[in-house]
Amino acid sequence: MTILLIVFYVAIVLLISGVMFFIVRLVRNPERQINKRVEEFSEVYNKQEEDDTPRILQNQDFGHLTALNTLLDKLSVLKKINRLIKQADSKLTAAKLIVFIVFMSFLGFLIGMKINVFFMIVFMAGFGSIPVVHLYIQRAKRLKAFIRAFPDSIDMMASAIRAGHAFNQAMQLVGNEAPDPVGIEFKRTYEQYNLGLNLKDVLLEMTDRVNSLDLKLFVTAILLQKETGGNLTEILDKISYTIRERFKLIGQIKTFTAQGRMSAIILGALPLVFVLFISGLNPDYLTPLFHDKLGHYFILIAVFLQIFGFIVIQKIVKIKYQ
């Protein structure tokens, strides 16, 4: 039975991969010979060091999965995945992410298969979501680091403009001197602008890579100043002051909602602690819950209600400020 399940899973993965490869060949067939000849002439350029190439021009494909990347780019439903990868500043591509999800799902499939079908499905979903959850955590950490260093970067830019530098030179200064990820984003934006792209386009592209309300405020003020005029250094000083005042307000909000957030943590951990406590006192007491089919349904309902309750409490105590 175990071997049959593994063969069935592998057959499904191979079937889906084959269909996707066939579709890609149909889409790219007229261009395949041309692309092959271009690749032959461009091999010499691929030997150059990657650090010498501006970040905006660096290749984002994933080796032999270029065909899969092409197919994924044509699916509009995966634009959110590409945006998540971009905001997390990950080296992954959509093709890499899907490969990792399939691999982790198969790992969960192997682990859960040794227990029963219910845990097999749960482990497949849980392990398969690990790469996506990792990207969300990475994006949150990056956004937090960006927001923390952004006011000082604005002050640096204002000082550079006040000293007589142009706006693009001030961006270059921030890109070279500011800590990451602020320095990386401004350096990337400066490279795009230096290559001849429109200032409005490169600034809006930066707001797409970093989903921060503070950055959107900064970009809006810069674009308005370019159209209507005004004292740019004064505008930047006011933006920096506004962001720091928002930090104070966010701190007060976290203080006022600390009790509610602690309640969510305690209520969420209480069932797990209760199960561990009862299992320690009487290991056989909860055995029917894990071995009986009806017990599996009760576990599924309990997990769903726990997640639902945690989400409701988070919606109540969390103030959206981004």
Distance between the termini: 51 Å
SS summary, helix count: 14
Number of domains: 3
> What share of residues is helical?
over 70%
Please give the number of β-strands.
0
Principal-axes shape call: elongated
Overall SS class: mainly alpha
Q: Biggest sheet: strands, sense, closure?
A: none
Please state the CA-atom Rg, rounded to the nearest Å: 26 Å
Overall description:
This protein is mainly α. The chain has helices at residues 2-41, 66-73, 79-87, 94-113, 117-128, 130-162, 167-177, 182-194, 199-209, 213-228, 232-256, 258-281, 287-291, 293-317. The radius of gyration is 26 Å and the shape is elongated. The model is unreliable at 34-64 (pLDDT under 50).
Short structural description:
The chain is mainly α and 322 residues long. The protein has helices spanning 2-41, 66-73, 79-87, 94-113, 117-128, 130-162, 167-177, 182-194, 199-209, 213-228, 232-256, 258-281, 287-291, 293-317. It folds into 3 domains: 2-27 and 61-128, no CATH class; 145-254, Receptor-associated Protein (Up-down Bundle), CATH 1.20.81; 257-317.
List keywords for this structure.
78% helix; 14 helices; 3 domains; mainly alpha; Receptor-associated Protein; 322 residues
Task: Lay out the secondary structure.
Elements lengths: L1 H40 L24 H8 L5 H9 L6 H20 L3 H12 L1 H33 L4 H11 L4 H13 L4 H11 L3 H16 L3 H25 L1 H24 L5 H5 L1 H25 L5
Helix pairs in contact: 1-2, 1-4, 4-5, 6-7, 6-11, 7-8, 8-9, 9-10, 10-11, 12-14
